[in-house]
Amino acid sequence: MTTRAARRKAPTRDERKARTREELIDAAERLFTRDGFHATSVDAVADEAGYTKGAVYSNFDSKEGLFLALYEGRVDRAVAEMEQRLADGDPVAGITEMASEAVLRRGQEDGWLAVFFEFWAHALRRPELRERFRAQHGRVLDVLADASARGFALRGVEPREDPRKLATAWNAMALGLLLERLTQPDVVDAGLTERMMRTAFRDGG
């Protein structure tokens, strides 16, 4: 009876594979955020996770594929949080609050920001990576564009540009401020991001 019960509870091959994949992604996130994308090898990720290099390549087509899987997971969580927070109430307030919170997380996300910008530059020179990166990046912009359109409608303001273009511009501004914060933390405070976002909405973009 005990043996049969143990067999029934043993993880399936798919469950083991999913766990291996998750552990590799977790290990990659730790190393990428600490050391950077280029400085982190596939061997290092495998060692950190407790697997062989073959396990990495059986789950991901390349180190770039591993990073994109990590990025996709972060986008999944970000989109779910954004949709929840922007579903009700004033979407403008929700967007500005989230932008301010990103700046307030001083030190906590600096490693991720650094490797995110590093990989972005890396992908720009490789069309196949650029498209995969763009697809994930665009999911965040879709949520922002929808929330922006609703925010303007609530205010009775006619936006000067298409909401998707405005969302892209505002997101670029927020990312730019986060990048500047890494070198100018005394200049880029949480209030700056919030003030710039509110000014943009007030003026219709």
Tell me about this structure.
- This protein folds into 2 domains: 1-60, Homeodomain-like (Arc Repressor Mutant, subunit A); 71-205, Tetracycline Repressor, domain 2 (Orthogonal Bundle), CATH 1.10.357.10.
- The chain has 10 helices and no strands.
- 79% of the residues lie in helices and 0% in strands.
- The model has no long low-confidence stretch (mean pLDDT 86).
- The radius of gyration is 20 Å and the shape is globular.
- Helix 2 crosses helix 7 (110-124).
- It is mainly alpha-helical.
- The longest helix is centred in the C-terminal third of the chain and has 29 residues, at 127-155.
Quaternary structure annotation: single chain
Q: Write the CATH homologous superfamily of the largest domain.
A: Tetracycline Repressor, domain 2
For the CA atoms, what is the radius of gyration? 20 Å
How many domain units?
2
Largest sheet: none
Distance N terminus to C terminus? 68 Å
Strand runs, count: 0
Number of helices, counting only DSSP H or I runs of 4 residues or more: 10
For the record, what CATH class of the largest domain applies?
A: Mainly Alpha
What order do the helices and strands follow? Answer: HHHHHHHHHH
Alpha-beta classification: mainly alpha
Architecture of the largest domain, according to CATH?
Answer: Orthogonal Bundle
Strand content: under 5%
Find the CATH topology of the largest domain. Tetracycline Repressor, domain 2
The share of residues in helices is over 70%
